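User: My advisor asked me to double-check a structure prediction for TIGR02453 family protein before group meeting. I don't want to rely on an old file, so could you generate it fresh from this sequence?
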Amino acid sequence: MTFQGFPDEGLAFYEGLEADNSKTYWTRHRPVYEDCVRAPMQALLDELAGEFGSPKLFRPYRDVRFSNDKTPYKTHQGAVVNPAGRGAGAWYVQLSADGLMVAGGCWRLESDQVARYRRAVADEVQGPRLQAEVDRLAAAGWSIDGERLVRVPSGFDRDGDRAALLRHKSLYATRRWEPADWLHERRALEEVRTSWRDLTALNAWLADNVGATTGEPRSRR
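Assistant: Sure, here is a fresh prediction for TIGR02453 family protein from the sequence you gave:
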């Protein structure tokens, strides 16, 4: 299947799911999800795989075991590409009633990865490289996000140029588009491709300086 855009019915499907997150709604509208959300998202990922790597399309069901929110279905369709063997740094894309979102970086880091991240940020060669890349992305309209501490951790310069980066326990950049006609066209593919390319340097820095965890990962919920 060649990607031709995300049909408007897919966005309308998520509008309905936000209003009625029930098995009844899901069962009645599942063909719309399969044809207008999942299939075009898979087609988009297939076209990007040669450049970025094998994607993972997330399941539409929420894990409600440890959540007070027992609604059974996610109100978005997400997918991620984790480059094989690199450990840290990934690309993400998401479709919802709010439109299209792309992101890249690290959404969660284990304790050994956080330690390596902080050492690299404090390094006088690698730290300025990350700061320059983050500044470039922010100037280009990306939102710089991630879990942050209230204060710079002890043992690091609390007043230095990279104090804000040292507070991060995860780091990623995000760009969002509200619903627009071009989402229903092949332009959506090009927007994702161009955006993911713009995140290549950030992901490379994270892969080179943070890498994969050497400990036991936290349980996924």
